[in-house]
Amino acid sequence: METSEQIYRHLRKLRDHLGGETGRYGEISDGEIVMMMSPVPQHGLTAKRIVRQLDAQLPRPLAAFENTDTDDEHLGKLRIPDIVVVPEEAMNTTNPLDPREITLAVEIVSRSNPDNDYVKKVADYAAMGIPHYLIVDPRSGTARHLWSVVAKEGRQVYDNQVSYVYGETIPIGDLHIDTSILPLYTDGVSR
Q1: Cβ of 83: how many Cβ atoms within 10 Å?
Q2: Is the dihedral of CA 133, 138, 140, 142 positive or negative?
Q3: What is the pLDDT of residues 126-150, one digit of tens each?
Q4: What is the pLDDT of residue 118?
Q5: SS3 sequence, the chain?
Q6: pLDDT per residue over 41-63, tens digit each?
Q7: Residue among 119, 115, 124 nearest 31 (CA)
């Protein structure tokens, strides 16, 4: 019988084969490959506006990067956060990021699979030990910051969370994200 690490490595090879060199459209969680659709342009605009804000505030050697694999083979999880904050040198690899190097993961909720960001990734990012997780939801113009990973009932969970609405500034430690410049998902022009 295969171990969970062996199953994960098998799924990782299959994901890499399906996704080509980047593997961008597949994550691994709970023993499954989670296929992802390409995001809409407003999703990319939201990510760019957040990255610009973060990069203007982050002390070196930290920087914000988009769409980067992070995995924990022991947990059998591979995720691709929309944005990560890590030491710049951590990006100098062809391997997925070590989640213990990530200080903040940001997910921008998609229309097609919101539970992935609100439920599954909350559990996965806490299990991976990522200290801050920000969910930005252009569908409703809201955001949720989760932080302080603690052990409860044999698993890692976020102990704190605060919700925000677009127009508010989100404090994350010494960082601040202005949500008033983030677009809502629309069928036409974004604000």
Answers
A1: 22
A2: positive
A3: 999 999 999 999 999 999 999 999 9
A4: 96
A5: CCCHHHHHHHHHHHHHHHHCCCCCCEEEECCEEEECCCCCHHHHHHHHHHHHHHHHHCCCCEEEEECCCEEECCCCEEECCCEEEEEHHHHCCCCCECHHHCCEEEEECCCCCHHHHHHHHHHHHHHCCCCEEEEEECCCCEEEEEEEEEEECCEEEEEEEEEEEECEEEEECCEEEEHHHCCCCCCCCCC
A6: 999 999 999 999 999 999 999 99
A7: 124
Structure-token pair, residue 10: 């098998």
Is the pLDDT reported for residue 26 higher than 80?
Answer: yes
Nearest to 28 by CA among 43, 44, 12: 12
- The token pair at 191 is 């604000």
Provide the β-strand partners of residue 86. Answer: 63
Predicted TM-score (pTM) of the model is 0.89
- How many whole angstroms separate alpha carbon 3 and alpha carbon 21? 26
Residues in the chain: 191
- Is the pLDDT assigned to residue 164 strictly greater than 90? yes
The count of other CB atoms within 10 Å of the CB of residue 74 is 11
Tokens of 142: 């809201």
What confidence tier does 190 reach under pLDDT thresholds 50, 70, 90? very low
Q: What domains can you pick out in the chain, each with its CATH number?
A: 39-69+77-181 (3.90.1570.10)
